[in-house]
Design goal:
single chain; 60s Ribosomal Protein L30, Chain: A; 4-stranded mixed sheet; 5 helices; globular
């Protein structure tokens, strides 16, 4: 089945949702996600008819050998996982292209001082440039949340900016919970590391 001829409403209804800290690869089924300060990168090989999408909140997350932190929560690991997953499914790196979205400022507590949205957007651009993967379309920053629909079969992506709404309120709760989970895991990682220090 092909989805390219469908209206965006139908594509959204039939899509596979990608949650914060996750990634997915498909050949046909559309992928979707809802973004605030997070960033999603759509990466695809149009010739091979395969693509994937990820969703991350932090550019990177330092780990120790004993860390319990889920690596895919951070952009550097999430991007590597998406790229390696695509290559394992038959995509060819020289033919990969990307589209990226997000980094909005909708949660003031995350924007103040840390400027997470801009850091995520800059990270996505820099990572793709370093890997030699063209960023052919993007929509970053601003005071909006975004709904992303991605068609892996041909690389088409739809980005809908949204102002404050029930959907945005739900997104704020979800991203705040995601940020809290990251903070807890980082704290637990520190505690776990401290327990492993031996005094002589």
């Amino acid at each position: 089945m092909t989805y390219a001829h469908l209206h965006s409403r139908d594509i959204e209804r039939l899509s596979r949702s990608v949650a914060p800290g996750a990634w997915a690869i498909e050949a046909v089924q559309p992928l979707s996600t809802l973004l605030g300060s997070c960033v999603a990168v759509c990466m695809y090989d149009k010739g091979a008819g395969i693509g994937g999408l990820n969703h991350f909140m932090l550019p990177n997350l330092q780990r120790t050998p004993h860390s319990e932190v889920d690596a895919l929560l951070a952009g550097d690991y999430c991007m590597e996982a998406l790229l390696n997953g695509l290559l394992a499914k038959g995509a060819r790196k020289p033919l990969l292209e990307a589209k990226a979205f997000g980094g909005g400022t909708i949660i003031e507590s995350l924007a103040q001082g840390m400027n997470i949205g801009r850091r995520n957007a800059d990270f996505a651009r820099d990572w793709l440039a370093r890997e030699g993967i063209p960023l052919v379309a993007s929509d970053f920053l601003g005071p909006w949340s975004r709904k992303i629909l991605f068609l892996p079969e041909n690389g088409d992506a739809y980005c809908r900016r949204m102002v404050t709404s029930m959907a945005t309120s739900s997104l704020i709760k979800r991203e705040t919970a995601y940020a809290d989970a990251l903070a807890r895991q980082i704290t637990q990682r520190g505690a776990s590391t401290e327990k492993k220090i031996e005094l002589f």
